[in-house]
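mind reviewing these tokens:
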Amino acid sequence: MLITKETIAHYLLGRGLLSFESVVDGDLLVVEATSRNRNFKVIRAENPGYFVKQVKTFEPAAVETMRYETACYWLAQNDPDFEPLAALMPRFHDSDPARHALVIELLPEGASLSEYHRQLGSFPVEVGVQLGQIIGAYQREMGRRLRDGAKSNTFARRVPWILSLHQMDRNLFGQLSTANTQVLNIIQSYPDFPSTLERLSAGWRFDSFIHGDIKWDNVHVTVDSDGEGNEEGAGGKVTLRLVDWELADFGDACWDAGAVFQAYLSAWVFSMPAVAGVPAEQLVGAAQFPVEQMHPALRAFWKTYTETRGLNAAEARESLERSVSYAAARMIQTAYEYMFQSPQITTSALYLLQLSLNILKNPREATASLLAL
């Protein structure tokens, strides 16, 4: 059964998550927020709200990712080894394997980190610090708890699909959008892409628990208006939570760190004017969000992350180069996702692929010149 806006109250009643009194009293507002999945916000004035998530289609891939996310939420609340995740994510309430649905806490009113940065027009150091603390803490604690135990084998232990994109059969291109086909043609046509992706795939490590899909849209921001203002004048204490744990896995710690670098660099690229044929120097100078404005937050993230994980100087240097290389690979994925069902590859996506290639060819230079690390 597919859950709808009209049937969700009956569904939650049947799952024991609503009382008849709350429905009769009108303590219920349902807002549909469907994207990749069927999502509903159940807002209640007198009681905690719910976020209800159900697969949009019952295809095996969608069912599998819902199963992993459900397991992640359940384990965070019920297994001591996963306790470090509990404070970082919404609270688990219910799962429904028959309908491939999940019910979690509806987080307080806030915004995604993408929206927060756009509204603020700047990149607070505090955000970089919190990202470093959050990611470093669960990797340190859970890597230690799971590395030598059987629980790590309960996960798929997948290498990210983007690291084998260059191997995709061209006969399958007809099933993709025109823009996605163009992205794949570029990846397979420039030798540096396949060779570096092959190297990154071969060097993948299973040393930590990872979120697997860290991006600004998957970071929820709430601002406590009663808290103290920060140095950027945001007006209150900022709290970050990670959502969408569909790709959570036991994998390479540097993937999540690289995803943070990628999020900042992609925001910089997408803020450039999308005009073909303009010299790179002119594009960089016209960016709405210059990368130099991001450097303090990036430095704060990396410093806090390495300290939280407890890395020594040599380990930090080695992890930095790996993370920057993974950031470049994650840019390809961002370009690919950005072009989903698009009729034509955009200039911004081409910029992103060019930046990815430049970083993959020389990650050390990119670390110094782009990230100022």
Remarks:
- The two ends are 51 Å apart (CA to CA).
- The longest strand covers residues 38-43.
- The beta strands are 29-32, 38-43, 50-54, 92-96, 101-105, 111-112, 208-210, 219-224, 237-242, 249-251.
- Residues 229-233 have pLDDT under 50 and may be disordered.
